């Protein structure tokens, strides 16, 4: 299988959740981990959540403009995945602009050397786009998976 090269190729509609009702980041992490486990992308959702939580202690993943990009390299990850969650309201999150978060793009990669390379590639690909407020606004206001993909086009 070839490696997806564009954001639209990376976004699996089954891993997009819009207007989600989660009240805090831990609820987001558990929901995403369980969805990834259902798809076979994660073998142990609890271990994956622990790895995400550990990464959160290492530095802020809230990049501003209501967006967070939590990520973890984890032995629980079978297949690299990108999950997108847009919340129905802003929640507390440690961010670079000291504001909350409403859009979350969570990267799941394994902890092997190839996973580390994929981790950096995914972060770079998304970070370039998320630096633009018009893109983050379009993501937050998305009403369909197609809108999410279009936000990054």
From TrEMBL:
Domain PTS EIIA type-2: 9-153
Taxonomy, superkingdom: Bacteria
Keyword Transport: yes
Any one of the GO CC terms: membrane
Lipid biosynthesis among keywords: no
Transmembrane segments annotated in the record for this chain: none
One function term, GO molecular function aspect: protein-N(PI)-phosphohistidine-sugar phosphotransferase activity
Keywords assigned: Phosphoprotein, Phosphotransferase system, Sugar transport, Transferase, Transport
GO biological process: phosphoenolpyruvate-dependent sugar phosphotransferase system
Pfam families found in the cross-reference section: PTS_EIIA_2
NCBIfam families documented for this protein: fruA (TIGR00848)
Name of the protein in question: PTS system transporter subunit IIA
Taxonomic classification: Bacteria, Bacillati, Actinomycetota, Actinomycetes, Mycobacteriales
